[in-house]
Amino acid sequence: METSVHRGGIVFQHYCAQCHGVKGDGKGRMARLYDPRPANLMESDKNDDYKQLIIRLGGKAIGRSEFMPPWGAELTDEQTADVVAYLRSIHVDAHSAQ
Ligand code: HEC
């Protein structure tokens, strides 16, 4: 489990951080180029299944922005599961954070 989070973090920094930010807060260095902005993944209200889906298929295929690219051809199933585990580890509950 922890290994999965660790591996997922490496995948995230490599493929996702430029848009979603090194912390996953949606403030990546390329974020301002996109409208809608890349999601703040620390405060996402989506479940793991949904995240898995949008990561594999990309935003456009599920009615979201095409600026969220599809990663199905890039990442193995294991890497996708790892990155979802990583996202779970950085997630802060917006309600309990107050
Ligand atoms: C080119 C910029 C870009 C890259 C790179 C990118 N994303 Fe995204 N992502 C977006 C944008 C823009 C959205 C918001 C789409 C919308 O609001 O319709 C998004 C949305 C998402 C969401 C939905 C979150 C929510 O709460 O609805 C997830 C999960 C996600 N991205 C994960 C990832 C992961 C994991 C990676 C790396 C494998 C990644 N993204 C790489 C731009 C990007």
TrEMBL record:
Gene3D superfamilies given for it?
Cytochrome c-like domain
Q: Where is the Cytochrome c domain?
A: 3-91
InterPro entries from the UniProt entry: Cyt_c-like_dom, Cyt_c-like_dom_sf
Molecular function (Gene Ontology), one example:
heme binding
Q: Which UniProt keywords apply?
A: Heme, Iron, Metal-binding
Pfam families the UniProt entry points to: Cytochrom_C (PF00034)
Q: What is this protein called?
A: Cytochrome c
